[in-house]
Write the structure tokens for this entry.
Amino acid sequence: MYQDFATTFVFILLGIFLVAITFVLQKILSPQRKTRDKLTTYECGENVEGSSWIQFNIRFYVIALIFIIFDVEVVFLFPWAVVYKELGLFVFIEMTIFIAILAIGLAYVWRKGDLEWVKRRVSYGHGRYRNLTVEDETDSGSEE
């Protein structure tokens, strides 16, 4: 029974051994004299400007995630196109439902405004806050 796991165990040991060997070789072969110039960030031959710890707008990540989601899902269309003639109407209905779900997701993201690079900000309330009135500070101070 345990002989079935022997191959897996050998591959795990081989993987650990290869990772350990690369770490040891890196330690032996790497330059030991580290100067200030060697430790600075290299950006295509240009001098570094500012800190690398800046905050990026969340829209960069949202757009990237939306792209990855739809890009990965489109990959599922290729195997479907290959076997479409063999499997017939069932596969066509299944893929139609799949594409409809993707279209609903795209419409949701579009309606939510996450595809817009620059979101417009309004100075007045909308939704449940549209009837909200704001008192001016100068008016409330004159009553005293």
About this structure: The first helix runs from residue 6 to 29. The mean pLDDT is 78. The CA atoms of residues 137 and 143 lie 11 Å apart.
